[in-house]
Amino acid sequence: MPTNSNGRMPPLAIEWECVSNFSSDMTFTARLALRNVSDQVIAAGWAVCFNTCRKSIASTVSSGYTMEHVNGDLFKLIVNDGGEWLPGEVHEISYDAQFWAISETDAPLGFYLVPGDGGPPTDLGDPVIIPFARAEQRHRHQYDRVPASDAALRFRQNEHSHLLPLDAVGRITPRPLSARFSADACYLTRDAEIVHVSALNDEARLLRAMLDQLPTGPTGEDTRIVLEVGHVGTDGPPGDEAYMLTIERDMVVVRGTSPHGVFNGIQSLSQLLSNGGSVPVGRVTDAPRFKYRGMMLDVARHFAGKETVMRLLDCMARFKLNRFHFHLTDDEGWRLQIAALPELTDIGARRGVPADGQPSLPPSFGSGADIDASAGTGYYSADDFIEILHYAHARHIEVIPEFNMPGHARAAVVAMRARHDRLRANGDIEGANEYLLSDPDDESVYESVQLWHDNVICIALPSVDRFIDAVVTEVCALYRKAGVPIRTVHTGGDEVPAGAWLGSPLCHARMKEQGWTEVSQLHADFVQRCRAILARHGLAFAGWEETALIHACVGGRQQLLPAPEVGGPESRVYVWNNAWGSGTEDCAYRLANAGYNVVLSNAASLYFDMAYAKDHGEPGYYWAGFVETRQAFTFCPLDTTLTPGSNAMGHAVSPPVFEPLDEIGATRIAGIQGQLWGENSLSRSRIEYLAAPRMISLAERAWAADPGWHLIADAGERTACIERDWNEFANRLGQRVLPHLDKEPLAYGYRLPPPGAMWKDGAVHANVALPGLALHYTTDGTEPFAGSERYRVPLTVAPGTAAVRIATFDTRGRKSRTVTLDPEDARHE
Q: Any idea which residues carry the catalytic annotation?
């Protein structure tokens, strides 16, 4: 039984099961059982609270119980008679909820007991989840055509890949423009001399840290490494990130068109370096395809400490990603200290049930009642943030902070309301209203995607503009203190729920004053006010796609169309909602053709919070589909029709009416970005599992030259070419890249794909998605480890074998989830 946040055994044992997803097309039936396993009577009036992303339907809850939606993903269960809870007594509740549940991510979590005697709540942890074994548990409804991922399906999928000889596998990732090597080698040691000008001090320092991992060489036999800025031999405009790496037997020259180019060359050198210090003699010439190569991390839903952020920055730098989109605020948390507005972190960075009576945000995403133990509690002090800025800048990564508004803003709204109430109680009416973000008389009725009813800023208030200006002013000061330039602030702008502002007297008054008839006009005005505030600070505007779209009536029906672009050459819009079959597949191209600079952030390929596969043990959401490492690799930025696949339910979709990029629009695709939203990123290990190796596929597509798949007219030839390219990249990951990530000091916690395995001709056949990764197995029923027998050829099992257990391993001895094959199943193959 799990312990609670205090390390004690909780008084309740909890079990949860998805009974069936086939109750109807859009609901499922679940069972929740809670047993009092303590020897104490739980006083009458108790309640059990928990978080769930699936909203329960009140009318379906078992008789005698009420399941109340508190707000967001927080729910409360009570017994209607309010009686005592005796030791050993079980409460079993059946209920229906919205949509479906096919994975452990869909289960409720973060339970806590609120006692009836007024005492403090007790964290209960997460439930035991009954396995998803039957068809009605593993599929979303009877029309779900996506096969559940099991060992046999993985085996069939992995058969498309095969192990390549090491000399047929690229040495550098992302693939460079040109790389030629000979059989000769150059040897580096930790004592190697680095020759450089002072402008390259940061690059030399990072190179020295890399060399410090090598052994000491004999005196006088050290190779010289020269770092220099100059011309490199790339075709076309080289940009400031191009480099040329020349390796001779006694000298290495890293030349870049700028310090950033030199840094990129060092990253390629590090990938060529063996543990013994040898690098192959040769030459690499390289430059990126896209200028913008980004990764977004959401730390609002679950807080990630600065060390976790820095590890992500290190991993990004190794693969030449150069933009870090720092999602600092959302409904569930505000993560940056703003000295002028201390409530933002005093309240907005605390999540749980406060024992001290001080206001906080409610538990979300299973963060529990204990504020101090909550993964939802935490923020970056000014010094922390400056340290992160320094760290990123030294690695030539631009940090783009995001403050999400006007939706997804509940943490800020609650914090500023508490500030208002405190100052008003002290008689300071003017101060109380200075930064207020909500209309106290607003009676708007809405529900956000994340089930909040009060998460939208009242954009008619002049105090909202003062709030934004105050935040931006302090953020700019932090960048100045860090000595790091700030160019852009991302203002979010996504997913404002329908119904917001409709019941606000202040919003109605502003609309009447301006002669507006639609709240969309009020919203568009807010976007322009944000642009103006940022412009006064010399900053470019960035926002999600919703900030660039307007509602218009075309042909008698409402459509979303590009708004006139007024942001200038430095502004950017991030386009995410491209699910195939949604009608929004070409949104990015329409915006680029209309004049916007676009960062492709496509959910169906680049949302790394999506589960890797349809497997109940894989963490992550899947509303945009399942995003394997391959999905990011086969993403075609300038022709997303090339590999459309099917919709999220696995159904073939007729090609939509698709607006292609025009010649000028293609130049406005600034780049691509991976998104790691935080709902399920509750720890460093989870962040790293979800991020990599998908992030490396992202880097390949963002940096490497266009593979030219779209130029192959014949569909069969095109598919064969994509398969060949994927097989080489999968081998590059398995044989070179991931072993490189295993090395200290980074030793990144990337996901190891579970093996594919099945019975065939009476033997166990197994394979792996990334050839080169090792498979180890046992036949005595024990869990495999790195010292277990290595799988190399099909395995014939002796009679009486308990089970075959097999897992994927890295060079450190970490393993994937274990696959278990019962010899009894061989009889039924």
A: 495
